[in-house]
UniProtKB/TrEMBL annotation:
<dbReference type="InterPro" id="IPR001173">
    <property type="entry name" value="Glyco_trans_2-like"/>
</dbReference>
<dbReference type="Pfam" id="PF13632">
    <property type="entry name" value="Glyco_trans_2_3"/>
</dbReference>
<dbReference type="InterPro" id="IPR029044">
    <property type="entry name" value="Nucleotide-diphossugar_trans"/>
</dbReference>
<protein>
    <submittedName>
        <fullName>Glycosyltransferase family 2 protein</fullName>
    </submittedName>
</protein>
<feature type="domain" description="Glycosyltransferase 2-like">
    <location>
        <begin position="156"/>
        <end position="207"/>
    </location>
</feature>
Amino acid sequence: MPMPPSSPASITVSIVSHGQLDLVRPLMEELDRFSRGTVAKVVLTINIPETDALAGLHWGFEVERIENPAPMGFGANHNQAFGHCATPWFLVLNPDIRFDRDILAPLVAQARPDSGLLTPRILEPGKDEPEQHRAIITPHEILVRRRPGYQRPAVPHWIPGLFMLFRSDAYREIGGFDERFFMYGEDFDICARTQLAGWKLQVAEDLLARHDAQRASRTSHRHLYWHVTSLLKVWSSAAFWRFRGALRKAQASVR
């Protein structure tokens, strides 16, 4: 029987390693040090064969491993992990996220009844301030987002896939990630579909996680290809156009 949201161990964490167990190890140590009372289980997916940097290590929560016979995409891996989730909350977490204190219990405690997806503020390397809220991705937005005077939304239209705390009921209702996205774009898509289903995105402005960012799309032709093709999939999807229309309607109603 699922635990109520107020139960201590209420989160199943999904982490996928693409040859990154050296990054996963300090993350597991921080989850154990700061949040072992909130984490019921970590589902650790080994997406490609690698040396086991976690051999012989134990933590104060269950760790369930999945070793893929062939590499899978971002969304497919986390959807697979969700099949092993029996808690009220499901956390999609990048291997390179870092914590200085417990933010999971406070994040769950802040959740409003209609919040289907939550995140703390994210601090990128070399930055003094957290990442600003993100607007809907359009070709025009990509061109102007770095120009002076660009207006960020007061409430984000979407959040990146490196830290996504889903209410399990919301994730289940929308069917999880769209597996047609192999890598990139699936985070915007699932945020749009979550909101179209009537759930809200919630950012905990007082909670902070650090991201040791690895921006492969800037250095790898393959990742750049995935990035561009994913954007084209976003812009050709029904969810994008429905969400864009809903945003325009909401913005018009407050003018």
